[in-house]
Specification:
With about 500 residues, the protein is α/β, with parallel strands linked by helices. It has two domains: about 325 residues, Rossmann fold (3-Layer(aba) Sandwich), CATH 3.40.50; about 140 residues, Alpha-D-Glucose-1,6-Bisphosphate, Chain A, domain 4, CATH 3.30.530. The protein is built from 16 helices and 20 strands. Strand 3, helix 3 and strand 4 form a beta-alpha-beta unit. Helix 4 runs parallel beside helix 5. It is globular and about 70 Å long. The chain starts with a helix and ends with a helix.
């Protein structure tokens, strides 16, 4: 029992498997991985069938329910017998399994076991190519996690299928642990005394670029049984990354590094300053002492990928946040050309890192009536409680150059993604699924979302605010007393 619990904490994985010789390829994936979750829309958009490997179907069912070209299978790569549930008529497999946890002392043994079980399964299938995402391992002194990833690459190598390995360092994208930790540090601390590992050099790579490498590698025979370091165009210290991040956010920061912080003290520093766990902080501190400098190759030319600079990657991440495209793999060409399928909007999620939340739930009395009220919110109908407070907020917004409440709504009872709704924008609206997601377009020291959801006999109402610097945090605390009355009254009246 103890081993099961530790394994669940340790593994963060996605496997994607494709059947390329037919018009619709078959793909396997666990839906929780950071990279994998962003890769899935690209694979779906190409017409592949995505088979999601999950430990428990019931936990993932709602996320992928009734999605065309997505199949759920239960599989655990620590349990070789469970892999029999995975289809064998496959050609391409993405192997993105790795751990960022120190909760299991022998995690490298478990990672090797996962790789061995995958290899044994793959050699019995029709697999032609496995694509593995690893970390850059060129430094003479590697952390335990980087050594483990190096060993996994050796384990995955096979004579029966080709292995393509991409090795990346820091990946820059909204929602990643590194991005959100840096954001926490920069936005919370105008002045910081920091550990000496901030002077360690690395080559950060944008999330869009790593997805391009992974996506374009499918079926490329010139990449078979080869390993490539992939990285951005700049060599930066973590300190320089913090300063550039601050410049994008238009924040002035001062950083002083000191040599006296031990790894343990550094871990505690990271834990208290950011929203990360102590275990993850420890892992990151151990890894950040290792220089992550890639070896040059012709991979950029082979796959026609020109990685953006760190500053561009940060700007891109915030632009996606601003557009509410939290899944940052949505390429501009897809969006502008209209090629992206409507179902991909299912993958939109409100950010979790560094956010304040006001969460309310009630047992729904009349689902249809509640849905009608939610879909009629705003405009002439109002916001169901504290209308005068909403009007005051609208006046304040107009005073600072915002739209206020004057935009109203397009239709009194109908909502579609993209609609303006007073000083909100509709991001997702599916009455059948009982979910409405709004993004605030009022003048704010941060970003804000408002979500309504009805499922399993409950109505959920969540206001999320991600502050921008100290001003954003002060703003949240100043309006928090009003939130208690307004949001309580709103959900109660919706549920009448």
């Amino acid at each position: 029992m103890r081993m099961v619990m530790e394994t669940q904490q340790m593994i963060l994985a996605i496997i994607a498997i494709l059947r390329c010789q037919v018009s619709q390829a078959k793909t396997i994936a666990t839906p929780s991985g950071y990279i994998g979750k962003r890769l899935i829309p690209l694979l779906l958009n190409d017409g592949h069938v995505v088979v999601c490997a999950v430990r428990d179907k019931t936990r993932a069912q709602n996320y992928f329910k009734d999605r065309k070209n997505i199949i759920l299978v239960e599989a655990d790569f620590l349990n070789s017998q469970s892999l029999e549930n995975i289809p064998k008529d496959i050609d391409i497999a993405y192997y993105l399994i790795h751990s960022m946890s120190n909760s299991v002392k022998e995690f490298h043994i478990l990672e090797e076991k996962c790789a061995f079980n995958f290899k044994r399964f793959a050699e019995q299938s029709q697999l032609k190519q496995a694509i593995y995402l690893s970390g850059i391992t060129n430094d003479t002194k590697l952390s335990k996690h980087l050594l483990s990833r190096k060993n996994v690459e050796k384990t995955l190598a096979s004579e029966k299928y080709a292995l393509t390995t991409f090795k990346a360092g820091i990946i820059v994208g909204s929602g990643s642990s590194s991005f959100e930790i840096i954001r926490d540090i920069v936005e919370k601390l105008p002045f910081m005394i920091a550990p000496k590992w901030l002077n360690t050099k690395t080559q950060p790579l944008g999330i869009r670029d790593i997805l391009s490498f992974l996506h374009r590698a499918i079926g490329k025979k010139e990449l078979y049984n080869k390993s490539f370091d992939v990285f951005g165009p700049e060599i930066l210290t973590y300190k320089e990354m913090l300063y550039q991040f601050a410049a994008v956010r238009k924040l002035k920061r001062r950083i002083v590094t000191v040599p006296v912080m031990t790894p343990k003290l550094s871990s505690y520093w990271l834990y208290f300053v950011t929203s990360t766990s102590y275990k993850l902080a420890t892992t990151l501190v151990n890894s950040m002492g290792v220089e992550v400098i890639g070896n040059k190759s012709n991979i950029n030319t082979l796959l026609d990928v020109q990685p953006m600079s760190y500053k561009q990657a940060v700007e891109f991440a915030f632009e996606k946040i601003k557009q509410n495209s939290i899944i940052s793999s949505w390429k501009d060409s897809y969006i502008s050309s209209g090629k992206l399928k409507n179902y991909v909007h299912e993958f939109i999620n409100v950010p979790k890192h560094g956010c304040f939340k006001d969460f309310k739930q009630r047992t729904v009395k009349d689902k249809e009536k509640a849905l009608d009220k939610i879909w009629a919110i705003g405009g002439e109908t109002g916001w169901y409680y504290g209308t005068f407070l909403w009007k005051i907020r609208g006046i304040v917004d107009q005073f600072y150059g915002g739209a206020g409440l004057r935009r109203g709504r397009r239709h009194p009872t109908d909502l579609n993604a993209g609609d303006a709704l007073d000083f909100w924008r509709v991001i997702y609206a599916d009455k059948e699924k009982g979910k409405l997601l709004l993004y605030a377009e009022m003048i704010l020291p941060g970003e804000a979302w408002l979500e309504f959801k009805i499922e399993n006999g409950k109505i959920y109402q969540t206001a999320t605010f991600r502050p921008h610097g100290l001003a954003g945090r002060l703003y949240w605390y100043s309006v928090m007393p009003f939130h208690w009355f307004v949001f309580n009254g709103m959900i109660n009246n919706i549920n009448k």
